[in-house]
Amino acid sequence: MKCPYCGFREDKVIDSRESEDGLQIRRRRECLRCEKRYTTYEEIEEKPLIVVKKDGRREKFMREKIFSGIQKACEKRPVSTEQISMIVDEIEQEFKQRFEKEVPSEDIGNLIVEKLRNLDEVAYVRFASVYRRFKDVSEFQKEVEKIRGESNAKQDK
Ligand SMILES: [Zn+2]
User: What is the pLDDT of residues 46-55, one digit of tens each?
Assistant: First the structure.
């Protein structure tokens, strides 16, 4: 990287962080000659699948998020981790084929509902009933946690 102040080609990276959407890495660099600081931005070359949320915000497609959403719906059900992994794979593949790079989060939720329907009825109803109201996997997770918290509180009494 060439220093914008003196043109020297050696620097050290003093800070490195991902942008909020995870699509860019911002690095603070310090020139080894003039010691001035400057910022570079690196874009990830292979664009990941982007999820467009209901409110228009975009975020990286996160397997973990979908996985844990399905896992919560499948709690205490005869569904193995491998089966959940398989569903997540299928969902990811399907969207990579169907969309250039952006997927509405609603479509992801609907596809999860569809997959769960074939897998386990209870998990399907759990996911669908909560999801349909929220249309977003992360909101769904929060909701499930809230419901669980409430039922625990009732048991304590
Ligand atoms: Zn310099």
Answer: 667 888 988 8
User: What's the angle, vertex CA 21, arms to CA 20 and CA 24, rounded to 5?
Assistant: 85
Beta-strand runs (E) in the chain: 11-18, 24-31, 37-43, 50-52, 58-60, 102-104
Ligand 1 centroid distance, CA of 23 (Å): 28
Q: What share of the chain is helix, strand, coil (3-state, %, to 5)?
A: 50, 20, 30
Output the pTM of the full model: 0.55
CA of 43 to the centre of ligand 1 (A): 23
Tokens 């102040």 correspond to what residue? 5
